[in-house]
Amino acid sequence: MRIGELARRAGVSARVLRYYEQRGLLSSGRDANGYRRYEGEAAVERVRRIRELLATGLNTEDIRTLLPCAQGGPGLVPCALSSGIVDRQMAQLDAEIAELMERRAALGAYAQVMRERGAQDRALAERALRSA
Questions:
Q1: N or C: which end of the chain has fewer CB within 10 A?
Q2: First CA to last CA distance, the chain
Q3: What is the full DSSP assignment across 25-39?
Q4: pTM, rounded to two decimals
Q5: CA 73 – CA 57 distance, rounded (Å)
Q6: Plot region of 40 (φ>0 → left; ψ -120 to 50 → alpha; else → beta)
């Protein structure tokens, strides 16, 4: 199948497919006229798997490494390589979540101080209006 048909069936743009090919995630043959030719339903499934793995936050280098473990249905075939990459990504996400929680707590403290100061300012303004 040609690039346009693969793009349509996989729900991505032809530009995305060329990028995947450039990153080593997808391969194609060439027709005599130089047009890309993909291996049918297997290419559609491969693009879908790439999209699934990208949605997890993995980068294209890790995905290229994992693709051989991502054949034959959802998930990954368990192997030392896939487990190591997934464990590393999960540890990175845990660290990012912890950092975000710290940042949220700090921002929440600022918000609390702002609310308290706003209430104090309103009370002072009301007192000033009563005494005037």
A1: C
A2: 83
A3: S---EE-TTS-EE--
A4: 0.73
A5: 20
A6: left
